[in-house]
Amino acid sequence: MPDVPTNIPTPDPSLKNSNQPQKIYLKDYTPPVFSVNHIDLNIELFDGADKKHATVTANLDMTRNTAGDLVLFGRELQLESITLNGKTLSESDYQLDQESLTIVNAPDNCQITTVVTIVPQTNTSLEGLYQAGEGADKMFCTQCEPEGFRKITFYPDRPDVLATFTTRIEADKTYPTLLANGNLIDQGELAGDRHFAVWQDPTKKPSYLFACVMADLDVLTDQYVTSEGREVLLELYAKHENIEQCHVGMQALKDSMKWDEDNYGRAYDLDRYMIVAVSQFNMGAMENKGLNIFNTACVLSSPETTTDRRNFNVKAVIAHEYFHNWTGNRITCRDWFQLCLKEGFTVFRDQSFSESLHSPAVQRIDDVATLRAAQFPEDASPLAHPPRPDHFVEINNFYTATVYEKGAEIVRMIANTLGKDKFRQGTDEYFRRYDGQAVTVEDLLSALSVADPSIETFIDWYTQPGTPTLSGYFTVENNRLALSLSQQTRQVAGYPAPKALPIPVKMAIFNRATGELAKEDLVLLKDDSQSFEFDGLFAKADFDPVVSLLRDFSAPVQLNFNYSNDDLAFLMQYETNGFNRWQAAQLLVNRILLQNADTDAYITALKASLPALSETDPMLAARLLDMPSERELGSAIQTDYDPSQVRARHQAVKKAVAVELKDIWQSAYAKLPISAYEDTAEAMGVRAWRNVVLDMALLAGVSDAKHWAITQYQQASCMTERLGALNAAVAHGLPQKAEWLADFYQRFHHDALVMDLWFGVQANDSQASVADIFALTSHQDFDINTPNRVRAVLGGLLAQPTKIWTQQGVEQYLSMMQDLDKRNPLLASRLIQGLSNWNALVADKKSMVKQALILSQANMSSKNVKETLQSMLNNL
Ligand code: B3K
Ligand code: ZN
């Protein structure tokens, strides 16, 4: 029998049924009573047949800052011993509960040594130190942000306690790779086929940036010389069979390092930068100091196995985590309410980096599409919260689209308002002033406003929930164009009456008569409503103005401008801002889908735009045909949402567009022969356009289209092409569907990330029933402990509102959540958030879902899930 310890504190049953989880408030913040100067950590991992646990010894050098008790957080730790300044403490010397260890009247200078036992082998929460994978794939790694370090050892685990770390790791030699943050200062062999490594991190860091890895991995190495002349060793660790899939990530890392030097004057500060690929990980990646840990889906890439979207995402996530080294690690958050300080800013930085890799317009389209698909619905749902929340029960529930994506939009608005030079002046000031500190959103704004004090007014964006609606119209009098703009934000339950926010509106005025651009400007709406006047436009006799608002989506608002359908069709053709061409198409197609507007203007504009655009910018041509998904349409409806009606309209409009543009598909595909794979923006554009054309041609009944699909599947040069053909076969029920699914499985069943695609295609199949989709969870390759796999299947179900919003759909989904709530609360809570717009449903569905949610509450035990369910049911 393995010696799994039995006396680890288990959750108090009285808490399990408590419906009032403990709320923590921003207003209650107090500075830490003690700081930690240094921690020596020793982690001994035992993973033999008879011993499966880790012994963690921590030696903390602490100094008092203020009066109060010495509190160390610890969760699911078995305390073996504790000494204070050389004296062994007995149980009466401290208070121990499930969350913390408290020493009253501790001296001002404390050397505390704790020894604890933990069991990474049974830790399915993927927080703290855990085993990822089974058998030959097994490895051990950590995830500490936000509060995972307390699952490794007792510690003042909060982001404003910064310390230097020395970490010794010991394990069997079956795990030859022993990594931790910083520089390797010692390593050696031990008796019993064991070995150790000692790592020292010279920079002070909060405990959430701690990481270690014990595994058997291959490594790809490279080097980067920083602008300051530092030679940095770059290492990308992955399973042996995956190491060849690390080259894209390595190049992206070097590109990111250069980009941060060029654009923000930030160079890397250690001699070594390591990235480790892990197959079981709750999110995309983690920016641990000098030792990033990545979900394999966000770092591995090869043309044969990775779609263009994922390949691009690998580069973006590598950049994001690297950029955190300055925005997050060297300058960190004072408390977790400030999460968007690091996340919003860093997302803005990675989006800007991505713009440099391909067309800025397409990058902006993709970022806004994500914002509209994820953040706008969240802001309209019972889970709405400000980018900087003022209370929470479980901080893990706040790694949301609002914190990340809306947080990035706020920094973007500030950057656009300041202009390039003043923004750089502000960011330089931020890095100069706060390097090495744990700070707040107010500190960021204070630095960014050195060149323009008005920037401080953007604080209201951080503290107010809800998506503002920007409304407007224009009038012409005495040859002057007056643009009237107003704003309105819904009152969210539990928050004060909304204030007017500073809204930068990038705009242009065109002449309808000639299609020419007459004026470009950026106006700032500060009040509830304001008017802006433009003259000098009417010198030309034929001047007929078309105003184009919110270019490049200059603010995260719902636009409600009184465009006519013809105005939007005009802008689809003549806007010189690529993003606004797309936005005009989106506004028009949303009117068609949601308000039953007719399709004439939209189809005429597509016919006029696509042939030329597909030659010059095929990626933008592909995006111009974007139609909001059924799920997205559903979340735009506030009451009496009937998923079947939305679906019927969605299908009918898509079909009408496909049929009307049949000639375009016919001639376009012929010009798109499959050629050798290239990782360039141009080649990606062609592949995206080809897949859209194939899908539309099959829908329109183009006679050659089935033949195109067969050739594309068989001759695919890369995964984007093969999956495009497979998706088409599934979506259009081609006779090859079953054969190709089997073939795809045969080709790729050894590659977990491709198997995620295989599960995803079937879960997204509109022909599949709810039972068919859940049957995928009984497949031999399904694994509930692998978040990527769970998301592949359940993501498909959530993408099909006609299926998830049925009794069977909701009940089976929630029953899986009950299981996940015990294994991996973080994942369970995130997936339950996928049901958050239940309250907009038509009456019978709404009461059915409400009942199911209420019933499920009693069966959930994690704080994460309890808080989510409570918010979903109460914040209406
Ligand atoms: N900072 C991490 C996210 C941690 C999530 C914890 N539940 C990754 C990132 O944003 O870069
Ligand atoms: Zn981040």
From TrEMBL:
EC assignment: 3.4.11.2
What catalytic reaction does the record list? Answer: Release of an N-terminal amino acid, Xaa-|-Yaa- from a peptide, amide or arylamide. Xaa is preferably Ala, but may be most amino acids including Pro (slow action). When a terminal hydrophobic residue is followed by a prolyl residue, the two may be released as an intact Xaa-Pro dipeptide
- Give the first-level EC class, as a single word: hydrolase
Q: Does the keyword Cell membrane apply?
A: no
| Obligatory cofactor(s) | Zn(2+)
Protein's UniProt keywords contain Magnesium: no
Q: Which residues form the Aminopeptidase N-like N-terminal domain?
A: 38-209
Q: Which GO molecular function, any one, fits this protein according to its record?
A: zinc ion binding
Sorted alphabetically, the keyword list is: Aminopeptidase, Hydrolase, Metal-binding, Metalloprotease, Protease, Zinc
| Classification via Gene3D superfamilies | 2.60.40.1840, 3.30.2010.30, Neutral Protease Domain 2, Peptidase M1, alanyl aminopeptidase, C-terminal domain, tricorn interacting facor f3 domain
Q: Where is this region: Disordered?
A: 1-20
Q: What range(s) does the Peptidase M1 membrane alanine aminopeptidase domain occupy?
A: 250-460
Tell me the domain of life: Bacteria
Q: Which Pfam families match?
A: DUF3458 (PF11940), DUF3458_C (PF17432), Peptidase_M1 (PF01433), Peptidase_M1_N (PF17900)
Q: Where is the Peptidase M1 alanyl aminopeptidase Ig-like fold domain?
A: 466-561
Q: Name one GO biological process term.
A: proteolysis
Q: Where do the Peptidase M1 alanyl aminopeptidase C-terminal domain residues begin and end?
A: 566-873
Q: Which PANTHER family match?
A: PUROMYCIN-SENSITIVE AMINOPEPTIDASE (PTHR46322)
Q: Which NCBIfam families match?
A: pepN_proteo (TIGR02414)
The family annotation for this protein states: Belongs to the peptidase M1 family.
Q: What is this protein called?
A: Aminopeptidase N
Q: Which gene encodes it?
A: pepN
